[in-house]
Write a structure and sequence with these properties.
Elements: E1 12-16, H1 24-37, E2 39-44, E3 63-65, H2 73-89, E4 94-101, H3 110-127, E5 130-135, H4 142-149, E6 154-156, E7 165-171, E8 174-181, H5 186-197, E9 202-206, E10 210-213, H6 215-226, E11 232-236, H7 240-248, E12 258-260
Parallel strand pairs: 1-5, 1-6, 2-3, 2-4, 4-5, 8-9, 8-10, 9-11, 11-12
Antiparallel strand pairs: 7-8
Helix pairs in contact: 2-3, 3-5, 5-6
Length: 262
């Protein structure tokens, strides 16, 4: 995604906020477009940090959820959901969420951070909302940013690298996976799958747009399902090559908690 002008309803964007490709004026335009299209602006965190917005630049009808740097992520998401419901009652088209992600809010590690992003993606998909998550690359290590990028359908910023695969919400406990999953990104896929399966005993994954998954990727998927007891992943839409490789690897058995559905 080149600029904020390209955002649309339902989008969840990973914004590399250090990038010189995006200026405070671009962010102001994003906010102004909210008023133009009838969206309510919800800023999570102090203004003026990653966004470059001064508090006076935010329209009076907007909401600023000024949580501390270390806050319960579920409480933050619950507050955003409340604002979305309020916006609907007030006649807004949707909500435009702008949130800065900081390392201090991810003390439990990368998997917890990815789980939070999956929840935000599910929120954007279910509520037809726009969610922009600002990450300063100077504050994060490269592997963490790689993991995070894989669970955003879109990214912005001059240093934003297109991930090998993406995993994004297609409904409650349902995720679409596209691209290629190989040994280089198997760890990121394992983290994303583990983050999804921890939220529900049964998760559906759509492989319609997945081009290829190698042995490392298949092992990552099975390992994620086995990470917690009584978990099950149902894969739908896999192409014939993926299905054949799955059978040849010996995973098409009753003892494997991943089912490659017909």
């Amino acid at each position: 995604m080149a600029t904020f002008d390209d955002v649309d309803l339902g989008d969840h964007i990973c914004w590399h906020a250090d990038s010189a490709a995006t200026s405070p004026a671009d962010v102001l335009a994003y906010v102004a477009d909210g008023a133009l299209y009838g969206d309510k602006i919800v800023v999570v965190g102090s203004t003026g940090a990653a966004s470059g917005l001064a508090r006076d630049d935010v329209p009076s009808a907007s909401v600023i959820l000024d949580f501390p740097r270390v806050a319960d992520p579920d409480s933050v998401l619950a507050a955003v959901r409340r604002e979305a419901r309020t916006a609907a009652r007030e006649g807004y088209r949707s909500v435009r969420v702008l949130t800065e992600r900081v390392p201090a809010a991810a003390l439990s590690g990368t998997e917890e951070l990815v789980a939070q992003e999956l929840k935000l993606d599910e929120f954007a998909s279910e509520n037809n909302a726009i969610v922009v998550c600002a990450f300063r690359p100077s504050q994060w290590d490269a592997p963490t940013l790689e993991h995070v990028a894989c669970v955003h359908p879109h990214e912005m910023g001059i240093r934003a690298v297109h991930p090998a695969f993406r995993m994004y919400s297609t409904g409650a406990d349902s995720w679409s996976v596209d691209g290629v999953i190989d040994s280089e990104c198997a760890d990121a896929f394992n983290t994303a799958a583990r983050a999804a399966i921890r939220r529900s005993s049964k998760v559906k994954m759509r492989f319609d747009a997945l081009d290829m998954i190698d042995a490392a990727g298949m092992h990552a998927l099975v390992d994620a399902a086995r990470h917690l007891p009584d978990r099950r992943i149902v894969v739908e839409g896999a192409n014939e090559t993926v299905r054949l490789c799955w059978e040849l690897a010996g995973y098409a058995t009753a003892g494997v908690p991943v089912v490659m559905a017909a």
